[in-house]
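At this stage, I put together a protein sequence along with its fold in token form, as given directly below:
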Amino acid sequence: AAAAARAGAVGALCALALAAVAAAPAGAETPPQLTVTLKTLGGDPAAGGASRLGVVYHVPAGTHLTATFQGLAFASDPAAAFGPAVFPKPVAAEIPYYRGEVMALVPVTWPDRAGPLRVTLRAEYQLCREGDAAVCYQPGEAVATLEVDLAPRAAASVAATEDAATKDAAVAAA
């Protein structure tokens, strides 16, 4: 009888534990969402040319972005060559981090073909909540796209040559 009573008590405790675990996700805190945007830097990109992209992280208030967990994966059609990202210096801490808006610079060599090009970025990140109940959330992923219209390389050279010829003619006329 004692064994049966213990088995019943253990069964009741297991049922309570399972009910508590099952209820936890419903009340669990939803991690804030970080957004990322892309922008071209240094003028209009030209086919076959090189420039930089800015990857702007928009870190939600009350959180910070860990500097030790970041991954960037670029794709474009047609294919461009993306170099390694250069991040600003993070806040010094046991685990370095960023707050607010943070921009990483990425060198890019554009394909030789002029015209429209779509750049897609998948950015992996980890946010941590700040304050008395600090906690780091599971890693997340943000996706950003950028439409770029690559100018023809020849057109950029012709425009520069025409501008120089106009200046030379003005100097000669003076």
Q: What stands out?
A: The longest strand covers residues 115-125. The radius of gyration is 27 Å. The chain is about 25% helix and 40% strand. Confidence is low (pLDDT under 50) at residues 2-27, 160-174.
